[in-house]
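>> received
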Amino acid sequence: MSNKLTRNRKKILEKTNKHKKYSLDEASIILKEISFVKFDASVDISVHLNIDTRIPNQMVRGTVQLPHGIGRNVYVLALVTKDKELEAKEAGADYIGLDYIEKIKSGWIDIDVIVAMPSVMTQLSSVAKILGPRGLMPNPQMDTVSTNPGNSIKEIKSGKISFKADRYGIIHASIGKVSFNYEYISNNAKAFMSQIIRSKPSSSKGSYIKSIYLSTTMSSSLLVDYKSFINK
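>> returned
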């Protein structure tokens, strides 16, 4: 096993240069070549922004529709009133109903996203401390609090993801799988970065984008040239 890992590491070192800025297409191709895990690894993007998240109007968060999805099923819990349960089911929700609030209290969190109607948000106060740290608390800015839950669920199921800068001003997100062809990876990355750029706070001064890295599960990170995302 150790010899195999060494061979793979050598291949990675031969194909990558930590001091180089890669074009987006180059990085998308190389990532596929340096992933040696036996499962379909996620392709991740990390964007370091020149923002101060301690200042409320400099927090960057939102949603973006990835043209090719993320390559896996996103498990959605719909917390809706009885009259909206059929709508949620037809939209593709995996779990439906307010009874799941009690299950969450008992430790159940086998979900990726919760879509809730505004009228049920007060009932989530009892599980806010469970959902909040895991990024599962519905939020209007993430389009997960909705009077039209069916539409929100359909968008999430078809590739809409949310993003939020951490306290260091870095946004992390999965934008696909290694099994995607490089054009799909590139297109998803462009869509993601377009939304990040549009989300620039008006109070942010100087260079907004500090760095952009692409990586896969257990692979080296590749520094991507910001110019790859401009006028493409």
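>> Helices lie at 2-15, 24-33, 85-91, 100-105, 128-131, 149-157, 182-198.
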